[in-house]
Amino acid sequence: MRQSSAGSALESTPELQVGPRSATSTGMVLPGSALHLSGGTVLQSAAVWRSERVNGGWARVDLPPSGASGEAVSAHCTGQNCVVSGYIGDAVALWRLSSSTVTRIPGVPQITSNPSAPIPAPLVVGARIIEVVSAGPKVAVLAGGDQQWTLSQGPTGKATSSALAGGWVYVIAEQAAGPAVLWRCPLSDLLR
Predict the structure, then answer these.
(1) Fewer CB atoms inside 10 A, N or C side of the chain?
(2) How far is the CA of 148 from the CAs of 41, 62, 124, 134, in angstroms?
(3) Which parts of the chain have pLDDT scores under 50?
(4) Using an 8 Å Cβ cutoff, are 91 and 110 in contact?
């Protein structure tokens, strides 16, 4: 049953239009954006909403940096710790979110993508992060987090989902013409 957002962090107001874009498969985290409409300016900032329960207790967390247009698109959470992916301008950005802090992950390669394009949820392997991004006609596969980031080329098309299974990274990519493709790469090749 649909719950009312009145009086919660999920309620839009004349000064703030909220826009959750997706939800995590575990936990209660909704990545999206907050459109700030005050002071004669309009600014869309990346944000997530968190709650311990579905029907209340929601809190908005604005993701840095403020002052630049952004949107959170997807997230991978383990307990209270999440890796969030999204955009700052038209470049891919990643953030770490815990119960008490949020930081933008440094050193992520500058990948330009269409901010309306989906970004599959980050894959997390220990302290390493793998993110799959649609970057022009090809998919870019980023790997980093606790070490320097690497950039690998994936399949042609737009990434719609990714998964990690049995030591392989799998990516589904939509083709401009024709059926979607399933691509796989050994995890060890990406975490070199």
Answers:
(1) N
(2) 37, 26, 15, 21
(3) 1
(4) yes
pTM for the full predicted model: 0.84
Query: Which pair of tokens denotes residue 136?
Result: 């022009």
Going across the sheet that includes 128-135, the strands are 123-125, 128-135, 138-144, 150-156
Give 37's contacts (C-beta < 8 A, 6+ positions apart).
Answer: 14, 15, 16, 17
Q: Are residues 102 and 125 in the same domain?
A: no
Q: Is 67 left (phi over 0), alpha (psi -120 to 50) or beta?
A: left
97 and 135 co-located in one domain: no
pLDDT tens, position by position, 92-120? 999 999 988 999 999 999 888 887 788 99
DSSP state of 101: -
Name the 3-class secondary structure at 107. coil
DSSP summary character for residue 189: H
